[in-house]
């Protein structure tokens, strides 16, 4: 199998990656990017969300080989303290976290939405995030944060 080539947070990556390796495994275990989280491993909770060419996608169910040549962005590539993405800034301002495990997925899903629809209303935000689970029940604060970023 030829070496996998893709871009992660603007940096080129080339490496031998087994066919069964998920994108999430590559990012976390091989590249040390722990923004995306392992939740269900089944594409159902959203904790592992990354952007693939700007579109939100669940890294736990995507084979790394399946995104050859694509541009991957993780939470680390979206923004960092001191240079936060507006969605990250809004989450901090709204204190929209309890345990924080779902936040990667919430932020990445919301950032992809607002890139397409910068002024998405609450109904649209609610619909977009409906597949992202928060076991703490912090949805009200999360919706407020994303609405702040959309304003
Ligand atoms: Fe990927 Fe739950 S860990 S969707």
Automatic annotation (TrEMBL):
It comes from the Bacteria. Keywords: 2Fe-2S, Iron, Iron-sulfur, Metal-binding, Oxidoreductase. The keyword Metal-binding applies. Residues 2-78 form the 2Fe-2S ferredoxin-type domain. GO terms for molecular function: 2 iron, 2 sulfur cluster binding; metal ion binding; oxidoreductase activity. Gene3D superfamilies: 3.10.20.30, [2Fe-2S]-binding domain. InterPro entries: 2Fe-2S-bd (IPR002888), 2Fe-2S-bd_dom_sf (IPR036884), 2Fe-2S_ferredoxin-like_sf (IPR036010), 2Fe-2S_ferredoxin-type (IPR001041), 2Fe2S_fd_BS (IPR006058), Beta-grasp_dom_sf (IPR012675), Diverse_Oxidoreductases (IPR051452). It holds the Pfam family Fer2_2. PANTHER family: BLR6046 PROTEIN (PTHR44379:SF6), OXIDOREDUCTASE WITH IRON-SULFUR SUBUNIT (PTHR44379). This is Nicotinate dehydrogenase subunit A.
């Amino acid at each position: 199998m030829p070496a996998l080539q893709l871009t992660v947070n603007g940096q080129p990556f080339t490496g031998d990656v087994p066919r069964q390796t998920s994108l999430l495994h590559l990012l976390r275990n091989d590249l040390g990017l722990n923004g995306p989280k392992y939740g269900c491993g089944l594409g159902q909770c959203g904790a592992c969300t990354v952007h693939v060419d700007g579109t939100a996608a669940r890294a736990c169910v995507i084979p790394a080989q399946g995104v050859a040549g694509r541009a991957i962005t993780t939470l680390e590539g979206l923004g960092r303290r001191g240079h936060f993405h507006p969605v990250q800034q809004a989450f901090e301002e709204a204190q929209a976290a309890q345990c924080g495990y779902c936040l990667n997925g919430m932020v990445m899903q919301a950032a992809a939405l607002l890139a397409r629809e910068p002024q998405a209303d609450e109904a649209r935000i609610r619909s977009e995030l409906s597949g992202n689970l928060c076991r703490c029940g912090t949805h009200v604060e999360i919706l407020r944060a994303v609405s702040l970023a959309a304003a």
